[in-house]
Amino acid sequence: MKELEANKALPPPAMVGLWLGYGALCIGMFMAILDIQVVVTSLSVIEDALRIGADRMSWVQTTYLIAEIISIPLTGLLIRIFTIRWLFAGAILTFTLASIGCAISYDFISLILFRILQGFAGGVLIPLVFAAIFLLFGKGLKQTIATTMGGLLAVLAPTLGPLVGGWITENYTWHWLFLINVGPGVVTLVIGILCLPQNQTRLSLFKTLDWISLVYVAIGLAALLIGLKEAPDNGWLAPQVLIYFVIFVFCAFIAVRRPRSAISFKLLRDRNLAYGCILSFILGVGLFGSVYLLPLFLAFVRGMGPLDIGLVILVTGIAQLITAPLVVQIDRYIDARLLSAVGFFAFAIGLLMSGFQTINTGYDEMFWPQVVRGAFVALCILPPIRFALGFIPREHIADASGLFNLSRNLGGAIGIALVDTVVFSRSPEHADRITDLLKLDPAKAAVVLGLTTDELPDPQDPTGLLGIMDIIEQASLTLAINEAWIVMSAITAVALVVLLVMGPIRVPNLQVTAEARP
């Protein structure tokens, strides 16, 4: 596939247009990621409006994530067929129209169908940005700036999501959770068509596609996501959950073993990409888990509304914006592996700092953990992208970007499932322990509950215990949430071991045969 010529050959107006086109790609990705967090803040409002049962409401998010994760690894293939320009145009148009469809949905089925379309288009928009970094910009400062822009927006979107969703919920109807995508969607569609490079489409590739491998990939990833959704409630070893995981393993094995698989799994022979995907997976666990866990604490323990939650979480986004220019500069001069180690170490510390909350923990106590996570998360993104994708042959960048982003999203899905498992399995155990503690050591129980000893009821008085049952539930949930923070911190710290095992970054000698892709 013929891509854009080297940047040095581009006259200034063409370079300005290129940056505008890349900016459109970034906004499209930002919208796709933001849409997840914006909607989750108002699921109860949508549930009441469309008369959807609470037991089915979670599928509004699950179907979006399943469609998104299925489409992410297909992006490389779709770029080869349609080119960056027309793939972006098709994806952003589909995403915008699906957003309108979600806003005018009248029942559960119609909403789910449009969410699937929205998720599939959004899944294309995410890796498209990271592929464009290396396809549109040559090595050097421009590529570093482009990487920082993409990486920053990728982590800023879930941070701003609760704030945007809360503001819309409190000031407008639920329809605007989806309609906010229309204006940016139309603008970026026009800019993308006008400014992105025009290359030759290759529709003939459809004839040579290994459709069987695509079916196995889709079924396998869908089974994995459904299994992860069911595991916290039914148990990770429950038969119905294990069946989903077995289906995933079987389908993944078949898809990888297909001689001309539509997904270029053979690219993972490149050690830099393989280690980069592992780091991306680990970051997904910590990043998605923290973005999910903090609002959980603020909503169910502190009793905050969506807008107030968004304002608290905004600290992370501000820290990211302040440190981004510094990251751009140091990434040019310091070894990517060393920077990654610093980033993951600090991010793990930031997660650990949140593992000692009480039921009275407020904005002041949450400030510094968020600052640490926000300030160093860019070092967990930019350097790994640089060594994971920077040495991949140009014709395979899009496929590698799909695998890299798929790893992060799978890590996020597993991270959220682990958080749910820890929180909702350990919380009842902590409640029983606190109840026993009221009888055995009232002074210690008072500290856990945030009360004075005089405020504690007589342990032998059932009516008195009922009076503080809400506080016991909040305290037990807080202890379980603290354990989830510590688990995420430990998983994130594994990245340091991965970087140690990886050793110095080496220029690969990657040989990909013609069978690696259509």
Compact description:
This protein is an all-alpha fold.
Keywords:
518 residues, mainly alpha, Growth Hormone, Chain: A, 3 domains, disordered C terminus
Describe the structure.
The chain is 75% helix and 0% strand. With 518 residues, the protein is mostly helical. The N terminus and C terminus are likely disordered.
Set out the fold topology.
Elements (H helix, E strand, L loop, with lengths): L11 H29 L2 H8 L3 H4 L1 H13 L3 H29 L4 H29 L4 H31 L4 H4 L2 H14 L15 H24 L4 H19 L13 H30 L5 H25 L5 H18 L9 H14 L5 H8 L7 H44 L1 H8 L12 H6 L1 H34 L16
Report low-confidence residues grouped into runs of 5 or more.
1-10, 510-518
Structural class of the secondary elements? mainly alpha
Question: What's the total helix number?
Answer: 20
Query: What does the largest sheet look like?
Result: none
Strand content: under 5%
